[in-house]
Amino acid sequence: MGKKSLKEKIIDTALILFEKEGYHGVTVDRIVEQCGTSKGGFYHNFKSKDELLFHIHDIFISYVIEKAQEAYDRYTTPVSRMCAIIQSFTKVFGMYKPHITVFYQESTYLKGEFEININRKRKQYKNIILQIVREGQESGDFRSEVPAEITVMAVIGMVNWLYKWFHEEGPLSIEDIGKIYVDLIFHALLTEKGMKDPEAQEHLLRNQPVKR
């Protein structure tokens, strides 16, 4: 692995301090002291502490949007698209758990353009999933009696809560949890027609929960 840039070092230091002491409990002076840089080094990379907090969230929300769009473009059915999105969404909690934890603890401090931009990206992600659910309902693969908006919020809420309880040293890997989520969501959402679809069967077989 290559040497980390100063920007990456500042982010890593801020993640530790924000998670431990809270956003308002940490000053720029404290960040640069812990990071071993200067205020000039900090402000060369971030205009403010608010921009740093925005960047922390933007890292992972941009990743999930990219993966969701990749899933939509790569696969051709609502079932396969939903499966790929759930897996990539779950995986982000293994890759960026500190970023996500800090954001959900401190996101109320984002204001102005930072808040607007983050909310826009979160809505963009939600809309990709919403489109897939609606397409699945129109094709008869997903249950139409379940409101699409509520389905989307249930999926996002279930996966989002991982930041509260997932631990890498726990009995299940993030990949194991992703398989469980696919199984739960598909059995709740798919119609009889959807369950019989060969692509759905393939996904369900490939994502059988690990027995412990």
Automatic annotation (TrEMBL):
UniProt-listed InterPro entries: Homeodomain-like_sf, HTH-type_Tx_Regulator, HTH_TetR, KstR2_TetR_C, Tet_transcr_reg_TetR-rel_C_sf
GO molecular function: DNA binding
Keyword flag Metal-binding: no
Keywords for this protein: DNA-binding, Repressor
DNA-binding residues: 27-46
Pfam families, alphabetized: TetR_C_24, TetR_N
HTH tetR-type domain boundaries: 4-64
Protein name: HTH tetR-type domain-containing protein
